[in-house]
Amino acid sequence: MAQGSLSPGPSEVAPVGAVPTSDDVPHTQQMKKNAPVAVAVAETEAEAEGERAGIPSRPSSPVAASKPKTHMEKRLGCPHYIRNCKMRCKQCGKFFTCRFCHDEWANETSFPHEFDRHDVDEMYCMLCERIGPVGKHCTHCFAEMARYYCDACHLFEGHPTKEVYHCDKCGICRVGQRGDYFHCDACGCCYTISSAKDHECFPRDYMVGPCPICLKDMFSSRAPCVPLACGHFVHRSCYISLVRKSIFTCPVCKKLFLRGEERKRWEHLRGVQIATTPVPEEYLEYRRQILCNECGHSFEARINFAGYQCTQCGSHNTRMT
User: Fold this and answer.
1) pLDDT over 70 (residue 5)
2) Residues 123, 145: contact at Cβ < 8 Å?
């Protein structure tokens, strides 16, 4: 099989200029009779090998095979990206449209591993169905694999309106226009220029790592992340799910992530709830050790089933220890 192609290998053809003899004629005729069978077997083996590597088989219809493919005829790619190629994972040797498709497949196998998008050499063109070096254009049909391509991340993005840029300091590609974002060296992350005036730096460790709610990566995630008042980050969708469940404390440090009037309202309602909750007489003499989630002060208080107020900072965000 020729390098970078799924077609069968070269046929046994006599050198140019060679004159066939009478002994060669029957052999040549026999080759012509067996040629269709040999080609069919070779194509079947090639398709089987391609399927094992994650490459779809060639179209069986001669009309479908000869019909030229363009970007407008079919929207190629996967549920995550629009692109006209697949990339080969060096660990398993299979082709996948993106790293997310690969990781979903790999997690269900006996050899779980992640797709290293920075270590990619080969790609499979979905238009001409050939293998070649990874790049923005196919080296065989010269078609464009995607509107945007990053040679560092090997990211292909063919969405007609989505803007993507590569940040050298982050080391990854991010969604948006480069001119709308700035990189904070203290945080080690990119933020919108509109938030630069009120930007508050957080330790890089708060952003790097899994989301404390869904346990999925945040730094290289395609989903947007938001900082809480305490500095910890979560996915925006996870933040919304917390608020809908009336959970207003950080899942990491247990501090309130409410700000301004919302925080004051929460403290007021919590204080009213504690003050109006009766305690049975048989429990009035019981005392418990309480820890304030806001200031870290530890104190002793009479038992109350509704909650406690910190004797140092006055917050009602407390818990028993």
Assistant:
1) no
2) yes
